[in-house]
Amino acid sequence: MQPPKAPFGPPPPERVRSIASGVDAERIARTRIRIAAQRATASATKRYHLAKADAWLDFAVDVGSTEAGGDAAEDALDQAMALLGAMDRGRNPPLRTLHVVASSTVNPELWATVDQIKNSAGFPCAVDPLARAEVALVWAGHKAHIGDPKAAEEIGVRAQQSLDAAGEEVRRCFAVAEVELVQPSVPRLVPVPAAAPAPAPAPKSVTTPAPAPDPEQTAAAKSAATHVDIVPLPTDTLFPFGATRLNAARSESLRDLAQRIRSTPKLLAVRIGGHTDRLSRSGPEFNRRLAESRAQAVGRALIAHGVDAGLISASGHGDTLPVVECPGRRTRAIIDCLAPNRRVVVEIERAA
After folding, report:
1. What is the pTM of this model?
2. What are phi and psi for residue 118, nearest 5 degrees?
3. Rounded distance, CA 234 to CA 246, Å?
4. CA nearest 155: which of 169, 167, 138, 170?
């Protein structure tokens, strides 16, 4: 057996080894069924690991059927089984990609893109194609290592396509939901000719007060003159569970949003609302304070990236505005189901 080779790209120099029984078609088929059964109810992070495990199986099947000897197929199968085993034990595997023994450094620019997406707020939107891109890059490195440049290039193209798909998923997830209110119709006044009045003594000067403006019409007119861009940010990727402080990587991921806000023409206001799920054991007031603190943390990050502090306001809504309903007790499945409710929503208001 060859000695372990230092991995390349963003992942650290570490790899998983477990007891493997070789590349067995029946075993792989059973494992794929197991992966598919878990995907339907999995959280974003768990879907990432499941997609990566499935991609490792593809790697193992290809290498096992096209190469004689070597440990790469067994190593790839080890990777898949290690990910699934960790999740079965209730553990969250690391997000880094662990490498097979026989691999070389290839496509460093694609690894940089992987790292950028993984450390952005859009990571939950792109977990499937991102995981497949990472394994494809290791796969391409293996082909380069064994002297098969054509296969390395083909699999590198596959990795690029998966990264393109990941980027598209992030853009779709953060697409602007533009709210445009239509000005309510107002009856048109048509002048009616009247008969000439008979001469009369000049009346005393009387000042008639102007009618008070209708508050509803005034508010509607103001709304119709503005646009609101809505950007949802999933808090599961921004904050550790139950925490209110962004870590450095997640704070940096808000740089692009800050740039978008700064470049918004006729910017009027930036409203940040925090939302939680219903699972807190400390009650609604705790949820409200947690949501507000997280909204304030996002606001501070945007200010640090150059957004005018005078335009930003932050509020906490707790669990009062859910986007999904998941009845049931606090279980892992319910926690994952309620993930969309744990969010910070940024509203960017601009003049029409």
Report:
1. 0.48
2. -65, -30
3. 12
4. 138
